Amino acid sequence: MDGTRQWVVVSEFNFDRHGPRLVSIPGKRGQKRYGTLPPSFFEEVKSAFLAQRKAGTQKKVDRTKDAA
Fold first, then answer.
1. What is the pLDDT of residue 62?
2. From start to end of 1-68, where are the E strands?
């Protein structure tokens, strides 16, 4: 991630394994991963995601409709 403001939405989920929006990083042909989250941040996101899941308040979102 860079220095711009970013967020994670834990109240929604989608499953789009290697869908049309997964593109190579500009200037790095074939590379599709920018990096990994720091472990402590990943755990924070995972805990919040699982809490939403347990509460039954998440919704599945079809993001392929928006793909260009």
1. 81
2. 12-13, 59-60
